[in-house]
Specification:
Structural class: mainly alpha
Distance between the termini: 38 Å
Largest sheet: none
Helix content: over 70%
Radius of gyration: 17 Å
Number of helices: 9
Shape: elongated
Number of strands: 0
Strand content: under 5%
Length: 182
């Protein structure tokens, strides 16, 4: 699963095959097919695991920070940390980019991940006093900005991590949007 997730986050859903996984792990393709009969089944398992990992990370953000502003900053830190691991971008962000070529069940699982994120961000924004009429759209804008920042960071050629704070695209985009939202 780790190998497949890395491949998806770096190459995209359509940019890897079971042959890539088997070569990287020195195992046979049939052994992968035993656990994941289809690429869609593998993708669904990856998304389920990613949702669980993200939920645990969100709990940690809630437990370790005080106010809504800091939670939004720390949430952006989850995206920045993903990118710092070899230029990876959000697993479900990759699936969203490839949405038109994905099986329906993978699109549904991807959408469920983003529903989780929208609800969490909207809750933080509501707690910060953002009017109810704006929380949903503001949460969408924040998520879109973070996903887009990952793509910009990759385009800027920063896959080995950020060494200059002013070049941390993810955090600078997040800070700018948080200031505008709150």
């Amino acid at each position: 699963m780790d190998s497949a997730q890395t491949l998806v986050q770096v190459r995209g859903y359509n940019g890897f095959s079971y042959a890539d996984i088997s070569a990287g792990l020195s195992i046979t393709k049939p052994s992968i097919h035993y656990y994941f009969p289809t690429k869609a089944a593998l993708a669904e398992a990856l998304i389920a695991r990613y949702r669980e990992q993200f939920a645990a990370a969100l709990k940690e953000v809630e437990d370790n920070t005080g106010g809504a502003r800091q939670r939004l900053v720390d949430y952006a830190g989850l995206y920045a940390a993903t990118f710092a691991r070899g230029g990876r971008i959000c697993l479900c962000g990759v699936f969203a980019v490839d949405a038109e070529s994905l099986p329906a069940e993978v699109r549904r699982a991807t959408d469920a991940f983003f529903d989780d994120q929208r609800r969490w961000v909207a809750g933080v924004l509501a707690e910060a006093g953002v009017p109810a009429a704006r929380t949903s759209a503001s949460a969408e804008a924040y998520l879109a900005a973070l996903e887009g920042a990952l793509l910009l960071a990759r385009a800027h050629g920063q896959p080995e991590g950020i060494t200059e704070p002013d070049r941390d695209v993810v955090r600078s985009v997040a800070t700018t949007l948080i200031d505008a939202l709150l």
